[in-house]
Write a structure and sequence with these properties.
The structure is a single chain. The chain is an alpha/beta fold and 382 residues long. The protein folds into two domains: 195 residues, Glycogen Phosphorylase B (Rossmann fold, 3-Layer(aba) Sandwich); 158 residues, Glycogen Phosphorylase B (Rossmann fold). The chain is built from 14 helices and 15 strands. The strands form three sheets. It has a seven-stranded parallel sheet with strand order 3-2-1-6-7-8-9, sandwiched between helices. A six-stranded parallel sheet has the order 12-11-10-13-14-15, sandwiched between helices. Strand 10, helix 7 and strand 11 form a beta-alpha-beta unit. Helix 1 crosses helix 14, helix 3 packs across helix 4 and helix 10 crosses helix 13. The chain is globular and about 60 Å long.
Length: 382
């Protein structure tokens, strides 16, 4: 089966939806399917540096990735998203759909401009969508201006109940909940870890790094552990640390964006992962990554995280509370038997619920049920 995965964001910049699509493509390819990712891309050069201040990956995309336009930064869902808005991307996507002749088109964030919306209009095969966002206002203008496209969706997926609750008022239903998967290292042992806590996330208020940094001096003084900050722009993190009166001498290592292999090594060597987001998280991808590495978590008790983590795999704390966060981190760092038990159970949960091979098989079942179905209710322009 030939599957086209449409992503409205940039391949060049790390993010949850992009990572999901890449893992989806890899898992479907491993099952013998022909998969393409149609996505934005920002090649190296002055224009990219002007439009995108943070670091990204600017090499040539792999062969299965089809870039169709540059992206710009727009605020969405309490984040800064790299979204394709160039009008020239529309004829490019039209040509891709005509040339590739997909059996299924799978659209991520179906009401995001411009690629997702045009894919709903232009695809002549069955359409599956996945909604990721929790909260935000993106759906409002989608309901007002693009509701004519919604009947073209043949199967709706959400990565969590939080994402379903956000999307369903605008997209209708029913939705099937299929979580984000995680790539599983062949082996993971919760023991033998370094005295480290790892944080993974962009430098955005909703990710809660500021809460973690406020909590950290007490944790470091009590345990001697080091905090490893991954994924956030180092310059921005150091500015934040300076405002809070902190430095790397306080046991903080600012690592920036890391290659996937190095990132997995960091998580697998840490004793705990901290996920202090304060809201608008539909799913805890960083949490399932920790589970895959048998690393327990201390996470905020918010809707998207509560569906993933619980007392068997970590500790949930009130969002935005540095004292509670610091106390929970200290508690796990000082209680090795409990930490080992939580880490081992997290690995089991990852195998049971979030293995990409299992998730890909569920997707293939959906695709096969739709393949050969009649095309949309809307006449597609030639």
């Amino acid at each position: 089966m030939k599957i086209g995965i449409v992503v409205p964001f940039s391949w060049s910049y790390w993010g949850g939806v992009v990572e999901h699509a890449e893992n989806q493509a890899h898992a479907l390819t491993a099952l013998g399917h022909d998969v393409r990712i149609v996505i934005g891309n920002d090649p190296p050069g002055l224009l990219t540096r002007l439009l995108h201040p943070r670091a990204g990956r600017h090499g040539s995309p792999p062969a299965h990735v089809i870039p169709v336009g540059r992206t710009v930064i727009i605020p969405a869902n309490a984040s800064l998203s790299n979204i394709v808005l160039s009008p020239s991307s529309i004829p490019r996507l039209k040509r891709v759909l005509e040339r590739e002749r997909f059996d299924i088109v799978h659209v991520h964030e179906p009401l995001a401009p411009i690629l997702s919306l045009y894919a709903l209009y232009g695809a002549t095969c069955p359409i599956v969508t996945t909604s990721h966002a929790s909260g935000g206002r993106l759906w409002v203008w989608g309901k007002l201006f693009w509701s004519v496209l919604i009947p073209r969706i043949d199967h709706r997926i959400a990565v969590s109940e939080a994402a379903r609750a956000t999307a369903e008022p605008w997209l209708g239903g029913p939705f099937e909940i299929i979580p984000n998967g995680v790539s599983l290292p062949p082996q993971a042992d919760p023991g033998g870890r370094l005295e480290r806590v790892v944080f993974i996330g962009r430098h955005e208020p909703r990710k809660g790094l500021q809460v973690l940094l406020r909590a950290w001096p007490a944790v470091s003084a009590r345990t001697g552990a080091r905090l490893r900050v991954i994924g956030a722009d180092p310059l921005q993190v150091r500015f934040l640390m300076r405002r809070l009166g902190l430095s790397e001498a306080d046991g903080i290592d600012v690592l920036g964006v890391l290659p996937t292999e190095t990132l997995v090594e960091e998580v697998a060597s840490a004793k705990v992962l901290a996920a202090p987001a304060i809201g608008q998280e539909s799913f805890g991808m960083v949490i399932t990554r920790a589970f895959a590495c048998a690393t327990p978590v201390v996470a905020s008790d918010i809707a998207g995280y509560r569906e993933v983590a619980g007392p068997e795999t970590g500790i949930l704390v009130p969002p935005g509370d540095p004292d509670a966060l610091g106390a929970a981190l200290t508690e796990l760092l000082e209680d090795e038997p409990r930490r080992l038990s939580l880490g081992a159970r997290g690995r089991e949960v990852a195998l049971e619920r979030y293995d990409w091979e299992q998730i890909a098989q569920r997707l293939v079942g959906i695709y096969e049920s739709l393949a050969g179905a009649p095309t949309s209710e809307i006449a597609v322009a030639a």
